[in-house]
Each structure stands twice: as structure tokens, then as C-alpha cells.
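The pair is listed for reference:
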Amino acid sequence: MNDSVWRAPGMPLLLTMTVLGFSGYAALLPVAPLWAVHGGADTAGAGLVNGVLMLFTVLTQLFVPGALRRFGWAPVLVTGMLLLGLPALAHGLSDALGPTLVLSAVRGLGFGVLTVTGSALVAELVEPQRRGKAIGAYGLAIAGPQILFLSAGPWMAEQLGFWVVFAVAALPAVAVVPAIGLARMLDHIPEKEMGDERAPYLCLLRPMALLTGVTLAGGALITFMAQMSSSAALTALALLLMSVAAALARWRIGALSDRFGPSRFIWPLVLLTTAGMAVLAWAVGDPQATVAPALMVGAVMVGISYGGLQNLTLVVTFQEVRRQHYGPASAVWNIGFDVGTGLGAVVVGMIAAGTSFSTALLVAGGISLLTLPLALRRRVPAARTT
């Protein structure tokens, strides 16, 4: 039964496109801020690199459902993969903050396309009864590149050179091939049959806010782990443990949500986010002497909540809408993800520049805790057509 989700029509193409696309995204996420620092940027400037990436990602996500209806799957998917992949090669031309921010903005356009189309297609390709497992498989396709490149990216830049990372970050351009194959399969999907009924956006604010709380914490760690810890080896190991924990949580919790429903698992993960950020704040209290065991434990704690809440909030998001609104629902969920990631980079960077990383991490954990009332609120089931 688990294997059948992976072999569902269209899923292999979707997973291939996702692996290639997220390889390019993950490779530069921790390295582009380091490249800006290499060019003379301060902590706040480094935080802006991923902040701008996420800003343009979110702005693009607002328009992807409409673009799919107007232009169709093939032009949107192909354009998105090229915008995400090709600009990565141009980073090597300058390490100044300005050009780095411009290239991050362009890549954000492509990433906005990848994220909205990817999660919407999971809902299109697999029936609701197995959607948690399908989202888990999709999550593994996302997490695999992150396990490899979020942890190894800074090491690759330091030991092999930034150009190696820039080459890996161009992989989304190769994803044009599975994207075209996937688009040919999707011609029958009634994207134009949306009607005038508006998507129930108010119902989507709860999962969006819950997701934003945990991705704010995760975005801060991905952006600044290399600057918070006292050695490159600790950075690589902490990011690796966080990525593995997130991948396993996002994958395994899918079957549990299919069986028991997602709500009972959400509030413990919110608390785990806050506790993990507190542990990490203690671990990086001394910039010259990171407490290695605490750094690892905190990274695993946040990784579990980071991955688990991604799956659960996406399941809840698609529960709230009819099929014709999968596109807008996917956009809202992805906006929550990327707003949190961008805020994690910018807010934590600014707070850390004025105080310390410990203080900034405690603030990020406190923001996550503010979503606990939403996690405790029970959803009222409503009849809908899927």
C-alpha cells in the first residue's frame, strides 16, 4: 500500500521534478548568505538574502493559480524551473550584496512556481484517503535534497569552492524534462472550471499561521546556523540532524494523520518547536564555544516539529477546500511556509545584530508559542465535495 502511493500515475514525474527543484533551492539557502558575507555584508545584510528570496516567492505564489488557468501547466512549470535554476550560475559573477539580492529575487519567482504547483499536484494525483501518505512521499522528495545540501552546502563552499554550490543550484533547469512530461499528463485536469466561487480563505488562515510559526524557527536556523556555531563541522552535523529529523517526521506522520486525523498531533509539535529553540539558544550562548550536545538535541527537536507540522498543516489545508480550490489552497499554504522562512531570516538577523543569537532564537521560539491556541482549537468538519 505504501509503494502504491509512489507509483500512482504522475507521482514519479512529480517527485523527480521536486528533487531537482529543491536541490537547487537547498544548495543556496545556507550558502547565498555566506556569499554575501564573503562580499562584506553584515549579519542583517546576510539575513536579507533569504528574506528577499522568500518575499518574491510569496509574491509569485499569489499569481500561480491564475497563471495555471490562463497559460496551462507546461508554460508555467517550464518557466518556473528555468527561473529557479539558471540565475544560480550568475552568483559567481559578484559577491556584492546588491547583485546577490537581485538574483535571490529572480530565483524566488521560480521557487514560487515550484512550491504551489508541487503541493497542488499531490492533491490532484492521489485520492483524499491516502493523501497523508502522498504528502509524506512528496515531503521526502523535498527533504532528501535538504538533508544533503543544507548540511553539506557550507562545507562544499568552504572546501570545494562556491562555484561547486552554484553549479548544483542550477539543477532545477534540468527539471524542465520531467515538468514537460508531467504537464502532458495534466491536460485533463479542469483548471479552467473554477467558476466564480471564491476559495474559503478564512478557513485557511489557521493552518497557515501554524505553519508560519514553525517555519520562522526553521528559517532562522537554516540561515544562521553557520554563523551561530563555533565550527563548520558542528554546523554541518546540526543541519544534517535537523534535516533528517524533519524528513522522517514529515514522512511517517502522514500515515498517522490518515488513520487518526491531524489535529491531535499539532499542539505537541508547537510546544516542541518552542522547547527546541530554547535549547538551541542555550547552546549558542557563547559564540566561541558552542555547546555541541545541546546544539544537536535542539536541532533534532525543531526538525521533528518542522517536518511534522508541514505535513499536518497541508493535510488540514486540503481538508478545508473543494477540489476546484486546490490551487489557491496550495498557494496559501506555501505563502505561510515562505513568509515564516523569510521572517526567520530577517527578524532573527536584525535581533541578533542588535543583541545576540541566543536572544533572537528565544524570540523566534516565543513567536511559535503564540500559535498554540490555534493548535488547540478543534476543527469542525464540514461537508464538501472532493
